[in-house]
Hints:
With 388 residues, the chain is mainly beta. The chain has a single domain (2-387), classed as Beta Barrel (Porin). It has helices spanning 2-23, 84-88, 92-97, 297-301; strands at residues 29-43, 51-65, 70-83, 106-111, 115-130, 133-140, 172-182, 185-193, 199-209, 212-221, 225-236, 239-250, 260-270, 276-284, 314-325, 328-337, 342-354, 357-370, 373-387. The chain has an 18-stranded antiparallel barrel.
Amino acid sequence: MKHKFIILTFCITIINIGLLKAQDKQRNWSLNGYVSNMQSVMFTHPDSMSINDNLLHNRLNFNWYVNNNLSINLEMRNRFFWGDNVRNFPGYADIINSYDGVDFLSANIIDKPSFLFNTTIDRAIIDFAAGNFNLTLGRQRINWGRSLVWNPNDLFNNYSFFDFDYEEKPGSDALRMQYYTGAASSIELAVKVDSTEKITIAGLTHINIANYDIQILAGLVRENDWVTGTGWEGNIKNFGFRGEMSYFHPKENFNDTSGIFLASINLGYTFENSMFIQMEGLYDQDPIDLSGGIGSQAFLTTPLGSKDLGFSEFSWFAQLGYPFNPLINGNISFMYYPDLEGFFTGPSVSVSLADNLDFSVFTQIFSMKLNNDRTNFYLGFLRFKYSF
C-alpha cells in the first residue's frame, strides 16, 4: 500500500510541475474534471431489506501539450464510498480496487469498515505524432468497438453498459502505433499487458468502401485465443448502421472446432424533433453461464471480456431518448435475454440546474430466471454532478 501511495503522489506532483512550467509560457495545458455525489438503493423485492450506498466521486483530467509532436495526458478518479456494501459485503474493497492493468496505479488509500477511499489513475499517456505516424504509450483507451452495447471487436478494454457513472470507460496499459495511409484509411498495431501479465496483441486496418468505414482485425487475446474480426459503420438511407463480429479460437486447440463466434448489429435513427432511437442485437455462440447466480450488484458493472458478452445466445436491445427542452433530457433502455426469460430496463432523466451543474435520476431493473427461480434486482440512483 505504501509504494502505491508514493507512486500516486508522484503522478499528482507531475501535474503540478506541468502547471508551473506552463505558467512561464503561453498556456499549453488544460485541467478539467468534475465532482459528483450519488446516492443509490438496491433491493430484490419491495418488501425486502434495501442496500443503501453513497459515492462521492471526483475526476481530474490533465493535458500538457509539450510541443507540436509530443503531449502528456494524466487522468485520475478519486472515489469515497460509504454505506451498506462497504460495511457488509466481503471483498467489496478488493473489487473497487481491481483494475485490468498495472496494479500500482490504483490504491485504496483508506479502507475502514464504514468507508472506503480509492484513487485510480485510468489514463497515463505519452503521445507522439509526426506526419502520418502516431505512437501512444501508457494507460489509454483503445476503442475498436463500433456498436453501442456489445463490442466483440473491443479486444483491449471492454466495459459494462450498466456502469453509467463511468462515462470515460476503462483504459489499457498498452503501446499503440497508428499510420494514416489516407483521409479515411489507416493501419495500426497495439500491445497490452493485463493484471495477470498476459499479453494481448492485435493489428487493425481501416478502409472506406461506398461511404462505409470498414475495419479488419486479427491478433492474440491474453495469450489464449487467436482472433479475427471485422466492423463497419455507415448509413442505410437515414438510418445509422453499424456492427462488428469476431471469431475466437483457442491457441492450444487450433485444429479442432472449439472456436466461438460473436456478432452485434446496431441501427439508429434521429427524428426531426431530436428524439432518437437505437436497436441492437447480439449473437453469442457461447454465452456466460449464470447458473451460479449473479451474486452481487458488482457483477452487473464489472467489465466483461470481448468474447464473454452475452447472457443468452441471442440478446436484444432498444433505447429511446428525447430532449424535452434544452434543460431536460429523458432516456429509456431495454434488453431482452430469451434463454433466461429475462430483461433489463433503465429509465433515466437528467436536468441542467445551472451552468456545469446537473441532477440525474437513474433506475435499473433486472429480472431473469436462474435455476427455475426468478431473480430480480431493483436499483435507483440520485446524482448531482458539477463539472469544471
